[in-house]
Description:
The protein is an alpha+beta fold.
Amino acid sequence: MSSSDTSSVGSVAELSTSTPPAPASRRKGNKKVRTGCITCKIRKVKCDEAKPSCQRCVKTGRVCDGYPVLRPRASRFKSPSPTPALETADELRAFDHYKSRSAFLLGGITVAGEEFWGGLVIQLTVTEPAVRHAVLALSCLHEELCKGNEAGRLHLRNGFAFSEYGKAIAAVRSWDVTRRGPESAAIPLLVCVLFICIEFLMRYEAASQLHICQGRLILSRMEQVSLDSPSMEMIRKVLVPIYARLSLASYLFATRPEPIPVHLTTGNGCTPLTFESMSDARDMMFHLLDQGLRFTTSGKHAVYNPAADPWEVQRLKATQAHILAQLSQWNTAFTFLRTTIISETAMSKATQDLLYVFYHTATIWVGSALSPCETTYDDYVSSFAAVISHASSAIAATGSLQREDAVFTFETEYLAPIYWTAAKCRHPLLRRAALRLLEREEVKRRRENLWRARELIVIAAYIIEVEEGQEQSTYYDSLGDMYGIEGYWHHEEELRVPLTQPPSLEKPDTKFSQEELVDIGQGTSFDLPLRDAPRGPVPLVQDVKAARAITNIDPGRLQAPFGISEGSRIKNTLIGSAGADGVWITTFMDPEPGMTEWSVRKTFLKVQ
């Protein structure tokens, strides 16, 4: 990320707001809050408030660090929104769409978008060329998606989005964070979030993961410095929570971003006894999710390695116990916080339900991480039930508030946990309840960053059909016209994964050559090749059918192991490239007796 037109850019503190400096003192309620120059504030002495520099600092030979700039909450900011210098009709149209629609839809349910997307980002379009060009590209793609053009990359207006995206990348190419100091990372980190959103909209998985890893790498190298400056406050309170939430868009797609330093995280990584606000509880939950996903990734390798160091296994068990204890403490603190909430809006209720969805999902992830058996998930039936119950409540609470164009959100919300419940919970009623949630009218056309509900419906139903062998059901017969599902094909490849390794494939390196980065800087997007539907006469194996009806379920299957043996269960499902007609998945199951490698099958599922 570098630039050719930011050579005259001012300090990050100046870029973080367009409001004038605050007065030396102000009243908050009946309490007088002292302000002054940053240097006097740190020294805890009275500031003489002289401009442009405090004379107390000058006379004592100190460098006056200037006056802190107070950024009002965007939702309470009543003055007119800033407007960048726009020239063409396409630029005006894109910026208007962003301000009127995109800024209020990208945040989704988990986090209100007004503060970041509708506040800080819009303010920085005035002073930062990189932000302005990225916003215009993002808005163009989002408008196409709102129109119903699912593959936004196929419907660009004269290449406008690609052109603006290339200009945004060019605008940050020369930005040297290491030379400018840790505080200067605020703008590149924010622009990187916009780039990630652009790649999400275009469904370019590899490029989006590259940007996530770049942002996390910048954070991982930030040393502990003073948090009094506005730029560091923005990094810690706004950008770090965003990158923590992006863990779900990385780890669940097999990418391993760098850890966020503890001094930048909420509560320095420790769950407090109580939460002061819903946002504090939310940020702490996603920090724990980040910890849990990193732990489960490292733990799986030791579980399947017969030569694993016993001390390493004991260390993993201690880490597992610590994270589970932190999750339990979060649940206690969050329950206490909820007792202080007097009135609730539908959105507030949905946010609480989503946090509970992630709490129960994280408990299952971490609790089952050190077991190689799929039957371990049978011990978490009550947690799976809670995931479905809270997800259903969140969907019901916001269903009436959903706009027709609210088909995409930057955040990972309930699609992934609901799909994962359908895949990993073998209770026949609960997994079908999860499948029904995915096919609800307000859910089935939804997209959450890289997750697409229509694909998840087909994949979840396929997993159920394979594990339960429900070949005579009419589930897909009834949905065939709606989703264009006619069947699936198996594609045999030499995919050899020994049993001493986790049932997965190595993630392709998401690093790109300098030539490829130059290409995208000139307006050419890139990604790994898409794999469309099989070409030519491919034999239809059988109709894809997964029973939704519960009348044919044997009551004996309502108790663990639910009539599905360990060998009949799919160990892992990798969601691959999506084309216009469907999606490739790779499944792992126990091998035939005497074999030393996982049974791996690549399958193409038709999706409309």
